[in-house]
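Q: Structure for this?
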Amino acid sequence: MPIYEYACPKCKSKFELLRPISKSEDNSECPKCKTPSKRAISRFVSRAKDDMSFLNHMPASTGNSCSGCSSSNCSSCGH
Ligand SMILES: [Zn+2]
């Protein structure tokens, strides 16, 4: 899921949220003052690059084979 950055029009604070793409254009409440805030810029591209470099460090034998969770290493789901 991509990370979106939101900017509060009232207190000017910025915050990031993990959201489905279908929700990316929806307003989100500022965590400080609860003002509905619009999306600022998408961080999806830079995060995607981080994900790719992370995958390159994975051992070839494991991969993302777990069907019980969305984790790529399954260290937290017991599989
Ligand atoms: Zn605010």
